[in-house]
Input
Amino acid sequence: QVQLVESGGGLVQAGGSLRLSCAASRSIFSINAMGWYRQAPEKQRELVAAITSRGSTNYADSVKGRFTISRDNAKNTVYLQMNSLKPEDTAVYYCYSRITTSNYWGQGTQVTVSS
Output
């Protein structure tokens, strides 16, 4: 099991940047799949970015070139650097991890991008 706590959300103008952090309650060294989903009002939750234990990354087409996911195993933390933010990036962002066959989620952090 693992508990995940997100931070770093907030209100930003279009074109601005935010960095989200996801702090895990245990070592993430052996956790292969970690990443970020987001859910906008009245929309389904969607994958934003994912990273494996070896550092391989995967991004949604809508954020490629603007968002960067990274992990710091020494700090048990996963980050999402978000640049060139757009109003359509407004959503609650959730950190997740997959351990064997179980998924774990954080409580979410709100990101609001004003036009």
Summary: The first strand starts at residue 4 and ends at 7.
